Amino acid sequence: TQSENVLGYYVDVERIPNSCRDSPNRIFLKDRKVLLNISMAYYRVNISAYNEAGESPQVIYVVPDFSATDLPGQIHVKHLGTNAVVTWTPEYNPKCFVVDWGTSKEDMRMKIVNTATGNFTLENFQPYKSYKIMVHASDVCQCESFTRHEKTFGVTHFYSVEGVPRTGPANVTILNITKHSALVKWTEIAAEDCLGFLQGYRISFTDSSRKRSLAVTLNYSTTSYRLTGLKEKTSYRVQISGFTNAGEGPPTLSQPFSTPKYGTVEALCICVTQHQS
């Protein structure tokens, strides 16, 4: 369909998950923009054009995650075996709450909670997986579209059982090598490899005589560190590991690098990531 022949657009807004199996909320538009007032639940937006000949194929767009990963202090989760007890303190008393939980957009489940007590038990959590839990307040409690009625009360993430990271950080790079220092940079451990809430990194180095330095503990958001106290004309190797509340994962080893004799020369060493088995 050519744009000059377009008479308007259909916009179907569908909540994820659509446990109620509702038909999407259809909006008719003449313009190519629309303002949607929605909660922090996942939504799928299907857009099609129409003219006298009919309707075009739909373009599907999933509303991305909001930048705020958590709304702290609103929801508390306590694991109970493979179950999780979710509690919250309402700011006001809506008719009901809508609880979403799952590991991804494709794996979300939904439950309408009609009690005002502010607690709910979620079942069958798998270990070592990150779950997103959202609680929305709503004044509509029947199984119908919540698009116009719900307001997100809180968002949090939860592991029923934490494990140690299954791998170390990637792309370990050694930069700006002087005779007494070197800058180490790396790529953070991917969320799916953490198997728990990443608390930080531990970094140490070993010289050619296999003497290891004391490990330095760094914040989880840190992805670079300057090594100091190195000896000139000495070969070193760096190892970095991540840790969760369950413990430390396997380290990543850098390729060996050597400090120069003179401090005025800065070398560059880009290292291949090696995971210690």
What can you tell me about this protein's structure?
This protein is mostly beta strands. The chain has one helix and 23 strands. It has one helix at 191-194, and strands spanning 8-16, 25-29, 42-51, 54-55, 59-62, 75-80, 83-88, 96-102, 109-113, 119-122, 131-138, 150-158, 170-177, 181-187, 200-207, 216-219, 224-228, 235-244, 247-248, 252-253, 257-258, 267-270, 274-275. The strands form five sheets. Strands 15, 16, 18, 19, 20, 21 and 23 form a seven-stranded antiparallel beta sheet that branches. A hairpin with a 6-residue loop joins strand 8 and strand 9 (109-113). The longest helix has 4 residues, at 191-194. It is elongated, with a radius of gyration of 26 Å. The relative contact order is 0.14.
Could you tell me the radius of gyration in angstroms?
26 Å
Uncertain runs with pLDDT below 50, 5 residues or more?
A: 269-274
Report the sheet-strand fraction. Answer: over 45%
Number of strands: 23
Sketch the topology as an H/E string, one letter per element.
Answer: EEEEEEEEEEEEEEHEEEEEEEEE
Overall mean pLDDT stands at 84
Report the total helices.
1
Largest sheet: 7 strands, antiparallel
Q: Separation of termini?
A: 57 Å
User: How would you sum up the global shape?
Assistant: elongated
Helix content: under 10%
> Structural class of the helix and strand makeup?
mainly beta
Tell me the layout of helices and strands.
Layout (H helix, E strand, L loop, with lengths): L7 E9 L8 E5 L12 E10 L2 E2 L3 E4 L12 E6 L2 E6 L7 E7 L6 E5 L5 E4 L8 E8 L11 E9 L11 E8 L3 E7 L3 H4 L5 E8 L8 E4 L4 E5 L6 E10 L2 E2 L3 E2 L3 E2 L8 E4 L3 E2 L2
Antiparallel strand pairs: 1-2, 1-3, 3-4, 3-5, 6-7, 7-10, 8-9, 8-11, 11-12, 13-14, 13-22, 14-17, 15-16, 15-18, 18-19, 18-20, 18-21, 20-23
